[in-house]
Amino acid sequence: MPTAQRLGQVGLLLAALVGPVRAWASQPSALSGATAVAAARASLQRIDHRLTQHRVEVRRLQRDIARQQARSQQASARLREQDRQIAELQRQLQAQHGGTPAQRGAKAPQP
Fold first, then answer.
1. Residue 100: left if φ>0, alpha if ψ -120 to 50, beta else—which one?
2. Is 52 helix (H, G, I), strand (E, B) or coil?
3. Which in 17, 33, 76, 102 has the greatest CB count within 10 A?
4. pTM of the predicted model, to two decimals?
5. 109 torsion bin: left (phi>0), alpha (psi -120 to 50), beta (else)
6. Cα separation, 58 vs 64, whole angstroms
7. Within 10 A of 42 (CB to CB), how many other CB atoms are there?
8. Nearest 5 degrees, angle CA 31-CA 34-CA 36?
């Protein structure tokens, strides 16, 4: 799966988790007093831990994307330079051999 697609999915997952967590936290619990508070804290800690893990994953994916983009730009620059060198070599070759084949044909005497 492409990195950008995974990054989008992680972002959607984070957004999907926040809404239900807030709704759940605002609802009264069937448990009483301290037990409900302790359960809510434990649950929120687990959710916070998962969110932290997802944020770390998002940052890693962003770094991966940046590295891939940099490599792609470097490869494009190398290809442009190679194209420039090929064009220059072709120009030099044509100059050494009296121009393009069409130009050489025009210079040849007609029977």
1. beta
2. helix
3. 17
4. 0.49
5. beta
6. 10
7. 10
8. 35
Question: Is residue 96 helix, strand or coil?
Answer: helix
Chain segment 55-109, per-residue pLDDT in tens:
999 999 999 999 999 999 999 999 999 999 999 999 999 999 886 555 555 555 4
Whose tokens are 């770094």? That residue is 63
User: In this structure, are residues 7 and 61 in contact, taking their beta carbons and an 8 Å threshold?
Assistant: yes
As a whole number of angstroms, the distance between CA 40 and CA 29 comes to: 9
Whether 20 contacts 82, CB under 8 Å:
no
Taking alpha carbons only, the member of 56, 59, 26 closest to residue 44 is 26
DSSP state of 110: P
99: tokens are 């121009």
Contact 73, 79 (CB under 8 A): no
Helix, strand, coil proportions of the chain in percent (round to 5)?
85, 0, 15
99: nearest Cα among 84, 86, 108, 111: 108
